[in-house]
Design a protein that fits this description.
homodimer, 461 residues, alpha+beta, seven-stranded antiparallel β-sheet, 15 helices
């Protein structure tokens, strides 16, 4: 067994020069969550080939050294943070485009390609990779798969799983495996590609994927409406479902979140009514004809419940509106300096209860609370505002989060709709799944990773 | 250990009276494939409750008795045929609608509900369950999930996996497990629901599912075009991909298949040109506006390559056209009395090679061959015509099928796009997957079903 101190030089012998970082690797101690590595990793490796990924996993598995696979580090659950030292295996240099077939609506690409890069390649070829999980210039394809990333357009298009026809991965004890491929349908074997998707690096290291793409929509636009109460917001949401239209995204801000970003609402679209206590923001896409048709259906659906007029936005202002929507998270954090945000997801017919429940739970713990997110999927970003200097507030927020999870589960939902459990909620699956399901989960983990070296401290019950 | 003869009375003690069939169960010896049970099952059970499913699986697991789960018996791979005696467990009495929420585009239903029943419930509520895998009045929801059924509209909507947000199943040694549920997104645990989907009853018995539904499209229509050669057919297909439209279904008939059903082509749409050597049939759906728009795009795309005019069909004639399309399989069988049909699936850019290769392989083995199916997904129903009385032809067809599989794999495709392996291709996964992937497949099987009692003789490498 290699000692942890000898690890760096052993790894250097396996990899091209310069691809093992041991000192200057502070960047790799964090992701976009508040989780911090309890100790620095022994080494950060940046394999430049499949052979190097295999060699590292094989070496680590032989020497009982933990591996933390890492994509762009934009995760919100600590999934890429090393919790037990060992090796951080960053896929950032594996960014080859293996096969781009615009005529067959398909791309095969390596894990380190950024989401934005995949989107650009699709766009430049008249196609579309609609997934928009956030941090597009930072997040990578491998990380998207490892977390089964979602985002606003998952409402119409599904999470990344819906686009994947094949996965290539290195699994313990260090072997390359190809599951699926370029064919759009394949039921020959068990869906082991699907098993790796969303497994947060705890079963293997995803190195490449085959993706279905779609024709680029001819038009894209937004509709928005403000509401004077949470009840009206919920009515508006249900009216969207009853409209007959299928928006690409059905987003919302509750009263608290809206109040924070109201001052920066795009001026050309008017201003947020002072009595607004919620907002729905719809994205529609498709042919120009269908966008116009859906605009009518959706404006009619939202109309009766909104304060004032339904807002319609197309052209350049849609970018401004997207940027504004994306600013919610950091603006909400800024109000008290820190926040604790959880991505619970509930059946859509329980959405109103979850939004009201978030505020109520915060109130009970003496914390301002708000939520926003993907209303159409019932996926809230339920947020408690805290001061970074107050240990007491953090403790109250932790207690509030526990109640939030219990509420999501009691409404028939889940503790994570899209961020994953990572280190943040490691162990929490027990709250949600029954004993038999938990036992299966454990068995699958120990079958694929018998030594428990793949991303330890993450996701497991 | 119970002897097989004592099995009937033991089971009768577990189930409501009349739900154990031992003699009159010949119906359960076959499905829609040519596979025949080598021996009759010891008992056929029709559990009427979850508790009865659990009791049967628990009893069988305790006594080492194989279980063959069964849906509607419309499978084409022998998946529901008992290969080793034991118990056939039919889900036909479990057909409760647990939760229908039209306002949230959702249904939860039990495994025995027919596909047509689910479609009707959706339609009656202004919604749509677009999956159309064939045999809608016979096939059941559980079987659809167990095979990850596809069909024509999988092109736009994906196979059944794309609609499932939760699965309930009884897994060895007889415990009920719920994986996922009514929430539209959930990344808390591994995708064990996805693992059961497409596992063909070899990992557990699916008892219920939660499905996402969609708003009913306002319009639906067909476009069709005939081609004078396989090359033109392939050109037509690629032009559809380049059109910018997203048809619901992209179907085809090659020259051989078309010749068989040309005489019964719906008269109101004209007749099949005598020089036709292939056909593409597109289904478009959506709002009236978008259907009209896609009609223009697709007619323009097909136009240059077709013989004569592009055919447009809406209204009642679309039903006639669907029925005609669905008649291909039995009409082709009738030409020589029997056929051997395989559902290979290849990357779309290799479609033309697979269509030509099918005929060429048949020719080399002295067999007439043709294909039809889901061109947009690269999913062929490659078919060799044989006489039911000729053992020699059957042997040649078996040899031809081997070459067909090798071709599909060499083109980067799969030996089964939608039917599954069942008993028909049991063991064939080895041809397609690498050693490491095969080892994982085996490990997953033995983890979930350590005694190997779930649907033995099916799907495994």
């Amino acid at each position: 067994v290699a000692t942890r101190t000898a690890l760096g030089s052993d790894l250097e012998a396996l990899l091209t020069s310069g691809r093992v970082l041991t000192k200057e690797a502070v960047f790799y101690l964090r992701d976009a969550s508040r989780i911090e590595a309890p100790m620095p990793p022994d080494a950060v490796v940046l394999p430049g080939s499949l052979g190097e990924v295999e060699a590292v996993v094989r070496w680590a598995y032989r020497h009982d050294v933990p591996i933390t696979p890492r994509g762009g580090g934009s995760g919100l659950a600590g999934g890429a943070v090393p919790m037990d030292g060992g090796i951080v295996l960053s896929l950032e240099l594996l960014r080859g485009v293996r096969d781009l077939q615009p005529g067959a609506w398909r791309i095969a690409a390596e894990a380190g390609l950024t989401t934005a890069h995949v989107q650009r390649l699709a766009r430049e070829n008249g196609l579309c990779f609609p997934l928009n999980p956030g941090a597009a210039e930072q997040s990578q394809l491998g990380g998207n798969l490892a977390t089964n990333a979602g985002g606003p357009r998952a409402f119409k298009y599904g999470p990344v799983r819906a686009f994947v026809t094949g996965v290539e991965a290195v699994v313990p004890p260090g072997e390359l495996v190809t599951l699926g491929g370029a064919a759009r349908k394949d039921v020959a074997g068990y869906d082991l590609a699907g098993l790796l998707i969303g497994s947060e690096g705890t079963l293997g290291v995803i190195t490449a994927a085959w993706l279905r793409l779609l024709p680029a929509p001819g038009a894209r636009a937004f509709l928005a409406g403000f509401f004077s109460s949470g009840e009206d917001l919920t009515t508006g949401l249900l009216n969207v479902f009853a409209s007959g239209a299928t928006p690409a995204a059905v987003e919302y801000l509750d009263g608290g979140a809206l109040a924070v970003v109201a001052p920066t609402f795009p001026q050309s679209l008017g201003s947020v009514p002072t009595s607004a206590a919620g907002m729905i923001l719809l994205e529609v896409d498709g042919s120009m004809e269908s966008v116009i048709h859906e605009r009518e259906l959706l404006a009619e659906a939202l109309g009766p419940a909104v304060l004032g007029e339904v807002i319609w936005a197309d052209g350049p202002v849609t970018d401004e509106l997207s940027t504004w929507r994306d600013s919610v998270s950091s603006a909400v954090r800024a109000t008290r300096g820190e926040k604790m945000s959880e991505d619970i997801c509930v059946p859509v017919d329980r959405f109103g209860e979850a939004v009201a429940g978030t505020v109520e739970i915060g109130h009970r713990h003496g914390l301002a609370a708000c939520s926003w997110g993907h209303a159409g999927d019932g996926n809230l970003h339920s947020t408690f505002l805290i001061s970074p200097d107050s240990e007491a507030e953090r403790e109250r927020a932790d207690a509030a989060a526990e109640e939030l999870f219990a509420m999501a589960i009691s409404l028939g939902g889940t503790i994570s709709g899209e961020h994953g459990l990572g280190a943040m909620k490691n162990g929490y699956l027990r709250k949600q799944w029954g004993d038999t399901a938990i036992a299966l989960h454990r068995q699958v983990k120990s079958t694929l990773d018998p030594k428990g070296l793949m991303n330890p401290g993450k996701k497991l019950p």
